[in-house]
Amino acid sequence: MLELRANTEIKVPIGCFVDVEDGFTPQIDIDISASNEAELMKNDAGTVTSINGNTWAAISSCRGWYNLTLSASNVDTEGMLTVIVQDDSECLPVFVRFMVLSEAAWDSKYTADDDGLMDVNVKTFESDLDLTVAMKNSVNAEASSANQALASLLGLGRKLKNAIRKVKSKL
Asked: What is the value of pTM for the model shown?
């Protein structure tokens, strides 16, 4: 499944279109403006959106495959997006599913100069946070246990490092 960036125009490959009669001969003359159905279903939508007017072009030397340009308004809803092309007289039905990610999520995942971390707004605990005494004690106990485990691991790491030095010095 391809992931798309929300609110961003993109050209996507759609295919393979094959003949309705034999089910394997590539169809090289599909015209979505004349298709019975050329539409998309956005995430959690009860209706379809026509894409008959979108830019559509055959991919050279890749018979039966086409590039479809999805406009920014086609990908304005985050979540699953399904493109469907059906022309009962020409080809078997073709559908392709995409996942539309928020712009921030897509940028974090795919932008080369990104630090790999999503920007998030962290809300600090305020004094009016209503934690019970038992909850606070539980959190403190877990933090203390984690600190002890980390200290123990660091100590073992130092001991291992010293043992390796001793062995190397004897070689």
From this structure: 0.66
Ordered mean pLDDT values, 10 residues apiece, the chain (171 residues)? 96 96 94 87 93 94 96 97 93 96 88 64 61 80 81 76 78 73
Q: Kindly give the pairing relationship between strand 37-41 and strand 91-101.
A: unpaired
Task: Assess whether 21 and 79 both reside in one domain.
Answer: yes
DSSP string, 138-153: HHHHHHHHHHHHHHHH
- Examine the domain organization and report whether 103 and 161 are in the same domain: no
Beta-carbon contacts of 2 under 8 Å, excluding residues fewer than 6 positions away, are 12, 96, 98, 99
- Determine the Cα angle at 64 with ends 62 and 70, to 5°: 90
Q: Do 62 and 100 fall within a single domain? A: yes
Asked if residues 108 and 114 have their Cβ atoms less than 8 Å apart, the reply is yes
